[in-house]
Amino acid sequence: MALAGIILAAGKGTRMKSDLPKVLHLCNGLPMAELVGRALRAAGVTDCVVIVGHGSDQVKATLGDKHYRYAEQAEQLGTGHAALMANEALKDFDGDVIVTAGDTPLLSGEALERLVSAHRDAHAICTVASFYASDPKGYGRVKRNGDGKPTHIVEEKDATPDEKTILEVNSGVYCFDCQALFAILPTLSNQNSQGEYYLPDALAAFARNGKTTHAVVLEEELFMGVNDRWQLAEASRLLNQSILRAHAESGVTIVDPLSTWISPEVEIGQDTVIEPMTSITGTTRIGPRCHIGPSTKIDDSQIGEGAKVYMSYVHGATMHDGSRCGPYAHLRPNAVIGAGAKVGNFVEIKNATLGDGASANHLTYIGDADVGKDSNIGAGTITCNYDGYRKSRTKIGNNSFVGSNSTLVAPVTIGDGAFVAAGSVITHDVGDDALAIGRARQEEKEGWAKRWRDKNS
Ligand code: UD1
Ligand code: MG
Fold it and tell me: Which residues participate in catalysis according to the annotation?
């Protein structure tokens, strides 16, 4: 049976005190609404409509149109009104729909699957995911009749003192028969303390009409809502801990879970060790038997088997098997480090390839360059890739040796097996197996130092 999703994300999120719409704030590396969208997809949702209002352009631009369609809610008249905005987009949809807020980043696909199964097993028209709240304040309370059937959800602001003692609360996540939902929403009233159209009132309306309503009790942690930045930090921490734990369970050593951050999409191979104060984000994939950290940031990068990265910043880069980097190296986008190659301290590499077995061990900038296999780039070598107007490439062959403190002025090519003398400024191509020296010749003035001292003392 088909499953659709509606994410309510039109609210402003005033308490975030931010120009960014609340649902776009990153929770451990991904926008909250994207985490919710992923949970929906993991539960089998194939068509997801996001209700946008505040900052709608930003929300659409960030979430994109691959996985989402959008419906505008110009005025925030309540959650029931918000859900109704999806009517047009889903008017031909025949199946169930999960409706959820966009600010509950800890939702999991597995929990949503349980909601949908419960809904279908009960042959319900409306199923609410509820939980027993450690502190129910602020939540809608779930009222059940003598048969245990939920008949009503009463908002905190509308609740009697008696109703406020109910601990089973509305998580804000529901499964509905999609067309039945759109049929009932226009019948709801906003005669309540907040003057809003309440989505939970749909459950009461179904129950009044004699339809089957259901509530499934799930774990409180799944539904943590984020309303301010402190709650965002807490949600990020919880999500991160569960990710670290999953990596640990699949054979990755996390030396210090308190100072290690790994975002949801990252993959890490078995027997890799992650040292403290390390953050691994984006679409990074790390192979088995690697050593990463301490104090390292890796974003959107590919790290091959057995590679080592110490105290470095690696983004948009590829390191092949057995290569190493750092301490204090900076691999920028399109840096490709060959198998077994070495990048040492204070080396920056951008849009450049370092061939297999090559090394650039100290104090070097390699930008817009191709360095061949087993070549050695001496300390202090700089590729001058930019003339103030355009970028040019430097090509260095296999088995070549670039002496320390060389300046390679691009565009320039250094052949296979060539040798550049230390301190050279290279402005012309160097042939295979040649020696290039581009510096002033050394002079020696015999006895000069002694004469200088004698004169001055
Ligand atoms: C809602 C439920 C409450 C439940 C709680 C769980 C209602 C009336 N109450 O309360 O029973 O216990 O969630 O967290 O639904 N939104 C819109 N447009 C609107 C109003 C809201 O898109 O017009 C969005 C918000 O951006 C937010 C979500 O809907 O993402 C929930 O709205 P919010 O006002 O936070 O509802 P709660 O007061 O939390
Ligand atoms: Mg809320």
Answer: 362
